[in-house]
Design goal:
Length: 229
């Protein structure tokens, strides 16, 4: 028989904490736009509080994926393993990009290639330009924005209505967003449309990563809630 006392309980405080931080950033950014321009400049500062928070979250997210991978890999197929390795490395790639691959921390010189093609003259791929093609504009802004929109607006519905998408989502254990997470992200989009600063997308990036960490945590933690027989 199932013993209800032996069923693990999903710890809710990480969800509440991350959600609270997301709403705090939305409120503070809105206030800064209206009444405190120096505060807005501080929020979008290079290597500032929001950029560092984004980097930390991406690092922790990658670690969480690999923890899940190590814990469950014996019972999973090769496609699950490939997906989780690529998923975890992608989050760590994002972390490395946020800190310019440690350049400003360690203090090494920018290689010649990045001096020629990086708009900020630092190590990093998302600010590369080549022959008029901007990686940041077309891949990390336009392409990623479309991907985020499809994921948070339609992916849950697609998993329910399209058989093969639902089957592969379950097989790979792809995180599926909830509507409350989508609403937080939509609130951040309206905020960004309201703010008039050239680096305002640093704010959206941080909020998005916060929301995605909620999605990741809730999705992966479901597997830990199976009752003990």
């Amino acid at each position: 028989m199932n013993d209800s006392a032996s069923i693990p309980v999903l710890l809710r405080w990480p969800v509440y904490f991350l959600t609270g931080v997301a709403f705090l950033i939305i409120l503070v950014s809105g206030y800064a736009q209206i009444a405190n321009r120096p505060l807005l400049e501080y929020l979008v500062l290079e290597d500032g509080i929001l950029e560092n928070l984004t980097a930390i979250l991406l690092f922790l997210g990658g670690g969480f994926v690999f923890y899940h991978f190590i814990k469950h890999k014996k019972d999973k197929d090769i496609w699950w393993k490939i997906f989780h390795v690529v998923f975890g490395l992608t989050l760590w790639f994002g972390f490395a990009e946020e800190i310019s691959w440690g350049q400003r921390i360690i203090g090494f010189d920018t290689p010649v290639f990045f001096q020629k093609h990086n708009k900020q003259y630092e190590v990093g791929f998302h600010n590369l330009t080549y022959g008029g093609f901007s990686v940041n504009q077309w891949i990390f802004s336009f392409g990623l924005s479309i991907g985020i929109g499809v994921y948070y607006l339609f992916f849950k519905l697609l998993t329910q209505k399209v058989g093969w998408i639902g089957a592969w989502t379950k097989r790979l254990e792809i995180p599926v967003p909830k509507w409350n997470q989508t609403l937080i992200l939509l609130a951040s989009v309206f905020l960004i449309l309201f703010i008039d600063h050239g680096k305002k997308w640093e704010i959206f990036e941080c909020i998005f990563v916060l929301v995605f960490m909620i999605t990741l945590y809730e999705s992966k933690s479901v597997d830990e809630l199976q009752p003990t027989i």
